[in-house]
Amino acid sequence: MLDSAQLAALAAVHRRGSFDLAAAELHVTPSAISQRIKALEEVAGTLLIRRGQPCAATATGLRLIRHYNEVLLLERTVAADLPGLTSAPATLRIAVNADSLATWVIPALAATSGFLFDLVIDDEEVSQDWLRRGEVVAAITSHPGPLQGCDTIALGSLRYRATVSPGYMSRWFPSGVTPQALAKAPTLTFSDKDRLKERWVALQGTGLGRATLPSHHMASSQAFVEACLTGLGWSLNPEPLVADHLASGLLVELVPGAALDVALYWQFTRLAAPALAPLTDAIWRSAHALLVPPG
């Protein structure tokens, strides 16, 4: 039988990245965390945490963390069916892309009670990997699956517009959006995983690749919009964040009507599906209200 306190320590060390932070989260001493991890490793017969900066779970450690998270959710479901039992809010670790978080995910989280949310922010192209490794119980991803042990719901597409300020357009694209102009005009990159610009540029038939697009780097959806408004660069922005600016003329499209739609999916572990049902419903309703409907 696995000890829940030891599993909680394992999950906290991996999530927080250190024994000290895990101890603070669980309101025990770092020594107690170390003892619990050591005892669990003895039971498992293998290393569960790689000590370092940060500390991280091994493959076996991740499997135990996934088991622990699923058990907590199952216990919450049982408690909901038995009025005599009380349970603390369960912590849900979810992988979500920054643009979804900035546009439609927060209302879904706010509409779901009884949970504490621990959000992993990562690109929709790789968020499924967090679910595959067992580090999260659900993810918003651009991959439809199938993923073993998981269910998938199509949410719709987040529409992007390539936007610039009128002044930026006049300065960098006086003769239109040509390959020569794109190779000189500064753009914006969220992270090294960000491929939206390259996809959009490819659709314009310019033949340009990632290396030929000079770029500022900033990991913020809101900062992208502000950077476009001030003329710092051009970027692909979620339509909900720039619709008012486009309507007012503060921003214009780099190529009018050349939108890029990114299909999104809600993936979650099948064992956790009953406990996640209220959140799944809220995610679907919030996505349905803002995203382009699935084709």
Q: Could you characterize what this model shows?
A:
This protein is α/β, with parallel strands linked by helices. Among the domains are: 1-69, Orthogonal Bundle (Arc Repressor Mutant, subunit A); 158-259, 3-Layer(aba) Sandwich (D-Maltodextrin-Binding Protein, domain 2), CATH 3.40.190. The chain is built from twelve helices and eleven strands. The chain has helices at residues 4-16, 19-26, 30-44, 59-81, 98-110, 127-132, 166-172, 179-182, 196-203, 221-229, 239-248, 273-290; strands at 49-50, 56-57, 90-96, 115-121, 138-141, 150-164, 187-189, 215-217, 235-238, 252-253, 260-269. Strands 3, 4, 5, 6, 9, 10 and 11 form a seven-stranded mixed sheet that branches. Strand 1 (49-50) and strand 2 (56-57) form a beta hairpin. It is elongated, with a radius of gyration of 22 Å. The N and C termini lie far apart (47 Å).
Structural class assignment? alpha/beta
CATH second-level architecture of the domain at 158-259: 3-Layer(aba) Sandwich
Question: Which homologous superfamily in CATH is the superfamily of the domain at 158-259?
Answer: Periplasmic binding protein-like II
For the record, what CATH class of the domain at 158-259 applies?
Answer: Alpha Beta
Written as H for each helix and E for each strand, in order along the chain, the element string is HHHEEHEHEHEEHHEHEHEHEEH
Number of helical elements: 12
